[in-house]
């Protein structure tokens, strides 16, 4: 559907996120006819570029990340682009930006801040001072919002001094992933699972976001951040929320976020000794991915030689509420693991009593796997009888819903959906201030436990599934990490 006319102003326009994700996502929306005829995309960065140079940079990025391009869309899209050189903490460039909006009062204005979070406040202040903030303006904040609770609060206060909460869109791109939204459909558009979706029916939950990539060229950011801040505080906790939340009354703006917040508030703190017992930190050493040698973390650019930043974390979380008491949620994420795979595994309880003798083989519990990427599917492990005239032998088999096979269409990138939700003014898939702060409060407890212990992350070889302690952590509970059936 076509939405009201809008302009996108992207701060950090020459950065990685803008070139790899934002411009390609807007391009795809343009290809689908969702951008208004007069919709402009104004890039802002410190770099002295004129419009033509920015268009050339964008064209290059699109060739790499939105191919195959279609010439008519490319011409139309590039013509929308412009660039302003501005100083987020100074005065340069702001008049020029304001002049682009002379006489443009009624369009929706989206200010997308793809910059360091310390600049969110200063940019908002300057937007206000330049008279750029109208009632139809929205601001999008990229993660991370700060690096702990105090800095998150400060940023939220600074942004909140200029924009109303309803105008603020805190993005977590995992919420824009198709399969993540499918989790809502799976849970709440099917009556089948919900009666079992609690500690009575579910033994435990695993959430994995594994990457084979290292830290790319983001050493400066990553070394101050680490896996807990980069992935767990936001993406993994958001997935946990969608798995664990109560049914919202509707998909109306606040209903879903209210339920997610309750989950975050029910997380048992992982502070002190609990934090150390129920988590494992790792840092990769040189190794190989797909047979290609890769350097260790400490040898990456931008990383301190004695860095104690974790590139892997696994932990055991619990929720203190009626539905989930006693059900562990095992979370795991890391860089330089053997493959890129993100999935949620729901392991149901075993049958209460087996009528099959030992010769039939084990009765394995049902397991629901929601695979987010790379190949999106929902798979349910069932026990079946192995065909044949002999004695009854059991075998695990899968009911398999592959999205590529069932729907045969391109899966849009998460950003495509979210960028359009901003324009439509729909915040359901964005994080509210209280969610972000609640997630930081919990993460900070674990960070504190690590810091106080003085221990270093455990080394693991690039191309393996993290330190062996991460495997021991779940096996101690008599369980194992899910591997492909
Ligand atoms: C980002 C993190 O938020 O998510 C990156 O900063 C990480 O470190 C990325 O690589 C993973 O996203 P995706 O969509 O590739 O799973």
Structural notes for this entry:
- With 485 residues, this protein is α/β, with parallel strands linked by helices.
- 35% of the residues lie in helices and 21% in strands.
- It contains 15 helices and 17 strands.
- It has helices at 16-31, 51-65, 71-80, 94-99, 120-129, 149-160, 178-188, 219-222, 226-244, 253-266, 272-277, 403-407, 414-424, 433-453, 468-475; strands spanning 6-11, 41-45, 81-85, 108-113, 137-141, 168-170, 202-210, 279-285, 287-289, 292-294, 312-317, 329-334, 341-348, 367-373, 377-385, 394-402, 458-461.
- A nine-stranded mixed beta sheet has the order 16-15-14-13-7-12-11-8-17, with helices on both faces. Strands 3-2-1-4-5-6 form a six-stranded parallel beta sheet.
- Helix 1 links the parallel strand 1 (6-11) and strand 2.
- Helix 1 (16-31) packs across helix 2 and helix 9 (226-244) packs across helix 14 (433-453).
- The longest helix has 21 residues, at 433-453.
- The two termini are 40 Å apart.
- The site of 6-O-phosphono-beta-D-glucopyranose has 4 residues, from loops.
